[in-house]
Amino acid sequence: MAQISDPKIAFAYLRPACVLLTRQPSVTNVETLSGQLKEVNDATLQQLQEYVLFPLRFVLKVPGPKKDKLVQAVAEAMCHVLENTCVQSWQTLHDLLSELCLCLSSPTDPGKPADSSEELKLSVLRCLDALLHAAYGDIFVRLFEPAMLPGLGAAISLLLALGEKVKSRDIQAAALKCLQALTLQCDCTQDHVVPSAEEQRAIGSTMASFLPGITTAVARIITGDLRQGHAVTVRAIKVWCSAVGLVMEDAQLEASEPSKTLLPDLGRVSQLVVHRQPHWVKSTAGKLSVLLKKIVSCTSAHRHWRVRLGMVELADYLLARCSRSLGECVGPLLEALVGAINDEEPRVRERCEVALREVSQKNQSSSRSSGGGDGTSESSSTFTDVLSENLHSLATSLPRLMRTSDDQQKLFVLNVFLGYLKVLGPLVSVVLNSAAHLERISKALMQVLELDVMDVCIVEERSRSSAVETGSASPDCYAAHVQRKHFLYFTDDKILSVLTEICRTVGYYGNIYLLTDHFLDLYCQSSAYRKQAAMVLNEIVRGAAGIGVATESRGLEGVGRAHSSATKEDLVAAVESVMEEYTSLNNWHLITVTEETDRDRQDQQLLSPPSPFSISNTDVGNINPNSLQVVPSSSGSPSPSSSTSTIHQLNSNIWQLCIQLEGIACFSQALGRDFRPLLMTSLYPVLEKAGEETLLVSQAALGSMWDISEACGYPSPKELINENSDYLLNDISLNLQRLHQHPQAPRVLTVMLTHSDCSLLPLVGDIVQDVLMALDLSYDHTAALFCSVLHALMQALVRWFPSSCKRADESGRPQQTSAEQEVFNIRQFLLDYRKEKELAEGIGIEEDDTEDLEIPPPTECEDVDDIVGPDVKAELPSHLNITKDVMERCIHLLSNPGLRVRLKVLDVLELCVCVLSEKEDELLPMAHRCWPALLQRLTADEPLAVLRAFRVLCTLGETCGDFLRRRVSKEVLPRLSSSLARQAPVSAKAGPVYPHTVAYKLQLAVLQGLGSLCQRLDLGEADLDAVCEACLPYLSCRQPIRLQEACLSVFRHLIQVDADALWFTLNELHCPSSYEPPHPDLLPVQLSGMGRPRDECSDNVLRLLREEYDHDRRIGQ
Question: Per the record, GO CC terms (predicted)?
Answer without folding.
Answer: cytoplasm
